Amino acid sequence: MTITIHIEGAKPDDIDRGLLAAQAVFDEAGITADQAATARFIVEGWDIKGFPTLLPKLNLPSAASGTRPTKRP
């Protein structure tokens, strides 16, 4: 998955720095952008529909846990 960001008025150097920072977060977490997006999609679905009565055993990346990295890249 290619990461893209669009920020009105941002200079190309700012966009590059933002993309590098985002990739560093994924690298530190040991997941890909695609895994993070999939996990977030699943969690958002639970938020909208409510949690299932019996939770499925899913091997979700840590991005789905709702935790945030404690240190910045």
Descriptive notes:
This protein is an all-alpha fold and 73 residues long. The protein has one domain. It contains two helices and no strands. The relative contact order is 0.16.
In short:
This protein is mostly helical. It has helices at 12-29, 33-49.
Please outline the helices and strands.
Layout: H1 12-29, H2 33-49
Number of strands: 0
**What best-fitting shape do the alpha-carbon axes yield?**
elongated
The domain count comes to 1
Distance between the termini: 21 Å
**Poorly predicted parts:** none
Can you give keywords for this protein?
73 residues, mainly alpha, elongated
